[in-house]
Design a protein that fits this description.
This protein is an alpha/beta fold. Helix content is 34%, strand content 20%. It folds into two domains: 3-58, Helicase, Ruva Protein, domain 3; 69-269, Vaccinia Virus protein VP39 (Rossmann fold, 3-Layer(aba) Sandwich), CATH 3.40.50. It has a seven-stranded mixed beta sheet, sandwiched between helices. It has a two-stranded antiparallel sheet with strand order 1-2. The radius of gyration is 20 Å and the shape is globular.
C-alpha cells in the first residue's frame, strides 16, 4: 500500500473525503498544489506529512491545517477564531448574481458577521466597481479578514470594522450579505466543528434564531432601493426565519442550495 493510500484508509474514521484530505495534506507537506502532486507523485514522503496527518486524525479541520480555504472565485486565509467558509454560503452569492444580472451591479456592499471576509471579498471580486464594509464582533476574525483583503489586493475597496451586527449604522447599501450563527445550542455537529470552530459563529440560542431576532429590525433601514439582503439560514428554519425577517417593508423569498435544501432568505423592498 502506498503512503497516500494508507493515509486515506486511516482518515476514513474522521473524514467523509479521506483520499482528498490525504492528497491535500501531502501536497501541503511537499509545498506543491494538489494538481502537481497527482501529476507527479513523490518518490519519498516528507516527515512533516505524518505530523499533519496526526492533526487531521485528532479531528482538526483540514482548512485550519492548510491555513486556506477556497470560496467562490477566491482563496482565503483561515485559522482558529474564524468560521471556515462553506460551499452552502455560495448560495448567497448565486442569489446576488441573479438579482443584479441585468444591472451594473451593486456599488456598496455590507457583510454582517464577516468572519474571514469571505462573502464581502467574493462580492468585491464579482463586482470590481463596488466597495464594501464588513462588520464583526471578533477581533481575531477581523484581523484575518483584513489580511485576506490585503492579499487579494482589495484593501482599498474593503473596510472592516468592529461592531454589534448593524447597531448604530445609518448608511444604505445595495447588497447586504449575512451568514449569522444559526445552530441550536443542543444540536449535534459534524466531527471537529464544535471542537475547533468559534461557538459565537455557530450557535444562536435554543432554536438557533437568536441572531435573526437581533438582525430583523436592523435590516430594513439599511437596504437601498432595488437592493437585496441575503441571509443564510439552517435547512429547517425557512418558515420561522422568513417570518422574522419579513418586516419593516421587506418581502422575503427562499433560496435553496445545490442539494435543494432551504439555505437563504432573500429580502427586497416591497
Amino acid at each position: 500500500m502506498t503512503p497516500l493510500a494508507d493515509a486515506a484508509q486511516r482518515l476514513g474514521q474522521v473524514s467523509d473525503t479521506p483520499l482528498l484530505d490525504a492528497e491535500l495534506l501531502l501536497a501541503h507537506a511537499l509545498g506543491v498544489d494538489r494538481k502537481q502532486l497527482l501529476l507527479k507523485p513523490p518518490a519519498d514522503v516528507p516527515a512533516e506529512f505524518e505530523a499533519l496527518l496526526a492533526r487531521r486524525l485528532a479531528g482538526e479541520p483540514i482548512a485550519y491545517i492548510l491555513g486556506t480555504r477556497a470560496f467562490w472565485s477566491i482563496d482565503l486565509d483561515v485559522g482558529p477564531g474564524v468560521l471556515i467558509p462553506r460551499p452552502d454560503s455560495e448560495t448567497l452569492m448565486d442569489a446576488a448574481v441573479a438579482h443584479f444580472r441585468d444591472t451594473p451591479g451593486p456599488r456598496r456592499i455590507l457583510d454582517l458577521g464577516t468572519g474571514s471576509g469571505a462573502l464581502l471579498l467574493a462580492a468585491l471580486d464579482q463586482w470590481r466597481q463596488a466597495t464594501g464594509l464588513g462588520i464583526d464582533s471578533s477581533p481575531a476574525a477581523l484581523a484575518i479578514a483584513q489580511r485576506n483583503a490585503e492579499r487579494l489586493a482589495m484593501a482599498n475597496r474593503a473596510e472592516f470594522r468592529h461592531g454589534d451586527w448593524a447597531a448604530g449604522m445609518t448608511e444604505r447599501f445595495d447588497l447586504i450579505l449575512c451568514n449569522p450563527p444559526y445552530v441550536a445550542t443542543s444540536a449535534t455537529l459534524g466531527p471537529g466543528v464544535a471542537e475547533y470552530e468559534p461557538h459565537t459563529a455557530l450557535f444562536a440560542g435554543d432554536d438557533g434564531l437568536d441572531a435573526l431576532r437581533r438582525l430583523a429590525p436592523q435590516l430594513p433601514p439599511l437596504l437601498g432601493a432595488g437592493g437585496l439582503a441575503a441571509v443564510e439560514i439552517g435547512y429547517d428554519q425557512s418558515d420561522a426565519a422568513a417570518a422574522l425577517l419579513a418586516n419593516g417593508g421587506l418581502s422575503a423569498n427562499l433560496a435553496r442550495d445545490l442539494a435543494g435544501r432551504p439555505r437563504a432568505i432573500l429580502l427586497t423592498a416591497c
